[in-house]
Amino acid sequence: MATTTARDTDLTGALVQTMHLLQDLYAETSRPLGLTPQQAHLICVLLMGPQGMTDLSRTLSIERSTLTNMVDRLERRTLVARTAHPTDRRACEIHLTEDGRALANQAHQAVTTRIKTLTAHLPATTRRQLTDALHAFLNLA
């Protein structure tokens, strides 16, 4: 059985605190836009292009039924729309409407600006190392 070192605990704690910080940032920046943090995350993901419900469910780490309800609410606000999947008659793709794209860009910019403000005191070298380390970590997941 492997032992946990103080360094392992420090890394775990830092990553968990980072996760909470990012969740708080999404909440802080999404509220003024009339979105929940989960809705903001969803429309920001859709900035990359239309996605199917299964892929979105996996990306957002939420159950299909929860995603369906979220898409229904965003669709009623005309921020997203469902379209037929090009190769699977049983499936649909979710895409941003023009209003949804504008709001997603605002949400993304608000989060980006807030993160830039929080990290502005870090030297450029440290920001680059942090970025590289996070990319390496994410490629393992």
Q: What radius of gyration results from the CA coordinates?
A: 18 Å
Largest sheet: 3 strands, antiparallel
Q: Helical region count? A: 6
Average pLDDT reading? 91
Keywords, separated by commas or semicolons:
single chain; 141 residues; mainly alpha; 3-stranded antiparallel sheet; 67% helix; globular
Characterize the structure shown.
This protein has 6 helices and 3 strands; from the N terminus they run ααβααββαα. It has a 3-stranded antiparallel β-sheet with strand order 1-3-2. The protein starts with 5 loop residues before the first helix and ends with a helix. The chain has helices at residues 6-30, 37-45, 53-60, 64-76, 98-119, 124-140; strands at 51-52, 80-84, 92-96. With 141 residues, the chain is mostly helical.
Topology diagram in text:
Blueprint (H helix, E strand, L loop, with lengths): L5 H25 L6 H9 L5 E2 H8 L3 H13 L3 E5 L7 E5 L1 H22 L4 H17 L1
Write a short abstract of this structure.
The protein is mainly α and 141 residues long.
